[in-house]
């Protein structure tokens, strides 16, 4: 295992660990807790899951260009998570349409939270934090 010797590598490591935690958390919610994700949650997973692989490979290879591959997924995921959070909060004046009557429901506040924190907020925070880490990678390696 390589030493984390630069600020860029530390930021990449943190971004990877955040993506890994979010991915494992989403899998835990779905597979262990049995909570089926709504459509917007699926879209966020589609953006988050590849980030774990992209950032992991970039970290392993010491390749700062992983930032260029990861950032579009971070932006897309963050936009969806912010939209989902707005729907959850009721700030966006429309019903949460991705949720069906027979499927998972975002309007069930108890089902949509982990330790009292709403899942859409956790997702937005994860994408935001990963984005900050990737923005911290700008510049030359030391």
UniProtKB/TrEMBL annotation:
Domain of life: Bacteria
Pfam families per UniProt: DsbB
GO BP, sorted A to Z: protein folding
Residues annotated as transmembrane: 44-62, 69-92, 112-137
Predominant place of localization: membrane
GO molecular function (one): protein-disulfide reductase activity
UniProt keyword list: Chaperone, Disulfide bond, Electron transport, Membrane, Oxidoreductase, Redox-active center, Transmembrane, Transmembrane helix, Transport
Localization: Membrane
Protein name as catalogued: Disulfide bond formation protein B
